[in-house]
Amino acid sequence: MTLHFRSVEEAGAERIHRLLDLTEHMAAVGRRPNPKVPALRGKTVCNLFFEDSTRTRMSFDLAAKRLSADTMTLAVSSSSVNKGESLRDTVETLDAMGVDAFVVRHRTSGVPWQVAGWTPAAVINAGDGWHAHPTQALLDAYTIRQRRGIANDFSGLKVAVVGDIRHSRVARSTTDILQLLGAEVVHVAPRTLLPPTSDVATTSNFDDVVGDVDVVYMLRMQRERMGEGLVPDGGEYSRRFALDERRASALRPDALLMHPGPMNRGVEMMVDPTELLQSTVLDQVTNGIASRMAVLFELLGSGGIEE
Amino acid sequence: MSHRKQVLGPDDVRRAVTRMAHEVIERNRGVDGVVLLGMQRGGVWLAQLLGSEIARIAATVPIGTIDVSLHRDDIGLRPVSPGTSSDVPVEVQGATVVLVDDVLYTGRTVRAALDAVSDFGRPQAIQLAVLIDRGHRELPIRPDFIGKNLPTSSDEEVEVTPDGVIIIESELST
Amino acid sequence: MMQQHNMVLVGATVIDETGERRADVRVREGTIAEIGSDLSAGDDELVDVTGCIVAPGFVDLHTHLREPGMPEAETIETGSRAAALGGYTAVVAMPNTDPTQDCVEVVEFVSKRGREVGLCDVRPSGSITIGRAGTHLTPFAELAAVGVHIFTDDGLGVQDEGLMRRALEYAGELGVVLAQHCEVASLTKGAVMHEGECCSHLGLPGWPALAEELMVHRDIELSRLTGSPVHLLHLSTARSVEMVRAAKTDGLVVTAEATPHHISLNDERLASFDTRFKVNPPLRTTADIEAVKEGLLDGTIDAIATDHAPHPPVAKDRPLDEAPPGMLGLETALGVARSQLDCSWQHLLGAMSWRPAKIAGIDDRHGRPIAVGESANLAVIDPDSQWEVDPSALASRSRNTPFIGVGLTARIRHTVFEGRIVVRDGKATA
């Protein structure tokens, strides 16, 4: 049975705990004079990115290289995929080149599951539609752990995730991992940007929570959504849900301000986070390498579940 | 059902470690630039013990640990999960690193340790101290300081603690 | 012209609209020649069907044969064969072909091809609007003159209320039936599955039940206003069933159908992201499934219709938003329906044979009582057969069915079409 890393839910608590601990090791490796280990020498990792994303792709690429794996990248914008070639054909062709793991990003939910049906290689989800982005969740949880000096028990921690929850795989995966670790999560969004049903506490009043929570997690708000009639045009979204000067100063001094990047300045971020002590934005990027190394090592290096 | 045979008692262990401590000091003409690195996991307590003996006889030496799980050559063949880490307290560059492990067997873990140490810098020399050398080398690795040579067969296991050394013979099908 | 088979079916239980009885059935020159007990074969072939049920052949109100236009998915020949293997002696062929069945030429092409293949009665439906574009009415009378009885824009619902009203008024006086694929398009943009807890969890755009229910309500009221009959395709939600029940109580001529997959599979199947579970209307919740089953059991829903929708692997092996909706149905309908509905064989057969025959306007030859002089269109069923779908044995050109490897009960042993054995021992004879 091939092991994959496709969603927090699928991975389960035991693996998540182990991966967080493994991330710690990989972060230590990253601090050495030579931040590279031969652990995955001879393994081939293929980045299959159907959606534009330079940062995540580079992060995975570097993570693989730090473990001495070979990498190859197929970056496809959906319009350039040969319409006659099905997704399956693409996967099977690449698989024939000898791939040990596929890192897949696609604008449609579920593609990493479909891909796994067409290759014996391990599949890592780098973001599927609105559904999941588990490596983001891992690096987010690790960042909180590191900045707060806590281990894997987040009980008592209150987190507000703010923005377009409905269309956000980051919101789903990060909420899943936070709840798995015992944190309390609230989603802050207008009704039109929430999923049809939700088993997480919700509010559309950002000001009610901004000064209370331990973590404020800002989601990227795409300008296109305004064109879809989900929120009115103009400054209304920003007035209600952006992190502006007033809300930034309402943050507790020991609170964390997180954002998965890239930021839409002037939309959900009205202040420069690098000027805020509470910001973890750069840590998140650094931790992205370590957490992706942890996932790659778990799937390709450790030979599966530890005995 | 397994057969357990004690081949060394706690006093034997102490005596061997003391002798090794003298040898380390003699070989390196003192302890300048020497750092002990216990190999995770079995060599960690031994490095502490060796270190405190050296400190008693001559002077304190820095003691650290080295985890080799990311440098092994059998990754993918055996499940492995680094639950331990490397803690290298001083600059490795130009130092004399003494790797410390409880048992030397095939030599593959030591080879991985040589790689792992070089990630931290370029030592002037790397020496190897083991309490037990049980034979069956698969690589050209030899110890500099040995507690005891203990020939074993490959279906035996060797258990080493401060309380002594035990050979465990697993009873394979008759 | 194919050779007739003269045969005696011996040892079965005959079930039709009139009742259930043990009887042997003799078929000669395409019609039922004799019914009795312990009939001797004589010159006719003795077909031992002890333990089986002999029923009128099934009628599918909703099949996509894909010809003309999509031969890689299915052809009239492969689709007819699949139908025969499923016990169907007649199918209503949906009009979303290429070109559309909105003119006499295409309709006659389909009828003629069906006759050439000769494995079941292929009855083309017409579209309600030209090209199913939703703007101009198809010439109903012209198509009715060449035998079309059902008109539908299936695949799409007629969005314009005014147009639908005019269509019903016009069709009403011709004696034809308009059938609706109930879906308010503005509520289902981009949807790939039922809108509910599951889609929220999976991060997939959802198809709210209301999108179906609004049009069900609309067409029931338009039927009330115009006095014309309306048939509702593939009902899938509890509220839709309730509304049809009320409409029938009010005496309106509203008929409805439901598919085997809408009484057996729920929206949680999409958690596997397997595109075989993507259908229109989507798989709904367990509560909806129970309501649809209830509707079939109490007659609110008149018929089981397969919505047989073949798609080749290259089409389904795509991301969920790109994969076309639909699954096969002809060869598994009986097995799935029998395993899901707790009712008598007679009630089940009514839903698969005589009630759809009446809605399709072909009850002169199909779904008939098994009596001397009637056309020999029969399904011989092995009611206790336990079997599994073998993908290599499917007659359809496509393989998009989630019932592969699933255990089913009840299977077609033989199918007799116009007096010829077209399926013998579970295998097509041609």
Structure notes:
- The complex is a heterotrimer of chains A (307), B (174) and C (430).
- With 307 residues, chain A is α/β, with parallel strands linked by helices.
- Chain A has 11 helices and 9 strands.
- In chain A, helix 6 (169-180) links the parallel strand 5 (158-162) and strand 6 (184-188).
- In chain A, helix 1 packs across helix 5 (134-148).
- The radius of gyration of chain A is 19 Å and the shape is globular.
- Helices cover 25% and strands 30% of the residues of chain B.
- Chain B has 3 helices and 8 strands, in the order βαβαββαββββ.
- In chain B, strand 4 (96-104), helix 3 (108-118) and strand 5 form a beta-alpha-beta unit.
- In chain B, helix 1 (10-27) crosses helix 2 (44-57).
- Chain B is globular, with a radius of gyration of 16 Å.
- Chain C has 430 residues and is of the alpha/beta class.
- Chain C is built from 12 helices and 21 strands.
- The two termini of chain C are 14 Å apart.
- At the A-B interface, helix 1 and helix 11 of A face loops of B.
Summarize the structure.
With 307 residues, chain A is α/β, with parallel strands linked by helices. Chain A has helices at residues 8-30, 54-66, 87-95, 111-116, 134-148, 169-180, 206-210, 224-227, 236-241, 245-250, 281-301, and strands at 44-49, 70-75, 101-106, 122-128, 158-162, 184-188, 201-203, 215-218, 256-258.
